[in-house]
Amino acid sequence: MPKKVRDSKMTNSPTLQRNKSHLVFVSLEITPNLVPVLDKRLEAKQVFLVYTQSMVSVLERLKDFYHQHNLKTIDILIDNAFCIDSINTGFDQINKLLNHDLSTLLVNISCGTKLMGISATQYFQGSAARLYFVLPNDDLIWVQPREKGFLSLQDSLKLEEFLFAHGVERFEPFMPKAHEAVAIHTTLKLIKQFVISDHSFAKFTQLVHNMSQPKKEKLSLQPFSPIFEKLKPHGLRLNADNSFFESSHLLVNLLQGSWFESYIADLIKELKLELESIQNVAVSVKIHYKGNISDEIDVMFLANNHLFIIECKTGTSHNYNLHLQRMDSLAKKLGGELTAKALIITSPITKNGGLMQKAEQLNVKFLSLESTPNLKQSLKKWILENSS
Q1: Please, where are the H alpha helices in the chain?
Q2: CB 3.0–4.6 Å: which of 70, 221, 261, 330 could bond 225 by disulfide?
Q3: Which of 176, 290, 279, 287 is nearest to 234 (CA)?
Q4: Cis ω on the peptide bond leading into residue 223 (within 30° of 0)?
């Protein structure tokens, strides 16, 4: 993918440097209100937040975000987001607070109701205020004054900041200790060699499942015995019947399936070397909301300030319809329609049962390690389609 070309005329514009205040419309679509204020070229010092009473919870999250970045916030409450006169009363307040000097104002018309954008365009038409719109790929275009080209916004948003702005109170990615990282690396290397290379996913999954319970007869570990032998120095212990015994909790979890999310996260990190837009890859993430509500996400990352979430499943005994619905529900909580979501499984995707049709309806990328000829390239294509 060609690198974005920044418009030098716009980047170096002296008018741009004078604008210290941003006006944003508080709505459920949050991301376009986050990124512009972080771009140092836009010189944000304070933010006017135009909102209605129904958006108070979103307002508070936005204010927390702005305050973390040392930005002053000013609340502008209006009665009705679908009434031009009501919206204009908010603009009148801002105009008065700025002593009628609109040369210091940047107006973001990317969010809010359509009437908010129309009202802003009409109200500020011909004034010294500058109006902009943020495209889905994070390119900023100037609506007033009209200028050719775009301003490519900097990828300065952190994953934790993105999640907090979307209602997450606590973000807990898995952060392995040094010896755990070595164990994960060794396990993945062995699984690539003895499982992935031979497409023996079902056989390996069944064996590990059988090893989870004591057996009357000794289990045969063939053809995967080298995996278990080479993991013994990392803490793996087996009973006489080859079932797991007092083994490292991490190793057992890896063998039982969490290896797959680490494998997918590694593919994303490899793609990060090819795609500069990829930011903040996290694996085995626990996120907590208000009211003691929590979710777990196998792999998540940002690309061009857009959220990507991935669910990884090994074995064949899963209700994939349920997982497709879960990904759709998670995406709605964390960024809405712009959040890209994928379900990746090790087993082949059967053509019956309407799974692919369901995935398409919910806009969930459905991939299989068994069926996809080049999973890494398929992931790269998916990222590019949803971040550019």
Answers
A1: 8-11, 14-18, 35-38, 56-68, 84-97, 114-123, 159-165, 178-191, 201-211, 225-231, 249-253, 259-272, 320-333, 355-361, 375-387
A2: 221
A3: 176
A4: yes
Q: How distant, in Å, are the alpha carbons of 51, 169, 292, 375 from that of 55? A: 6, 18, 22, 41
* Token reading at 247: 């083994």
CA neighbor of 339 nearest in space, from 206, 127, 163: 163
Helix-strand-coil split of the chain, %, nearest 5? 45, 20, 35
Give the whole-angstrom CA distance, residue 339 versus residue 345.
Answer: 20
Per DSSP, 244 falls in state: B
Q: How far apart are CA 154 and CA 264, in angstroms?
A: 26
Q: What is the C-alpha to C-alpha distance for residues 161 and 371, in angstroms, rounded to an integer?
A: 36
What does the pLDDT profile of the chain (388 residues) look like in tens digits?
A: 333 333 323 333 334 444 589 999 999 889 899 999 988 888 899 999 999 999 999 999 999 999 999 999 999 999 999 999 999 999 999 999 999 999 999 999 999 999 999 999 999 999 999 999 998 878 899 999 987 778 888 777 899 999 999 889 999 999 999 999 999 999 999 999 999 998 899 899 999 999 988 888 899 999 999 999 999 999 999 999 999 987 778 999 999 999 999 999 999 999 999 998 898 999 999 999 988 889 999 999 999 889 999 999 997 767 888 999 999 999 988 988 789 999 999 988 876 568 888 999 999 999 999 888 899 999 999 999 998 7
pTM, two decimal places: 0.84
277 backbone dihedrals φ, ψ, rounded to 5°: -70, -20
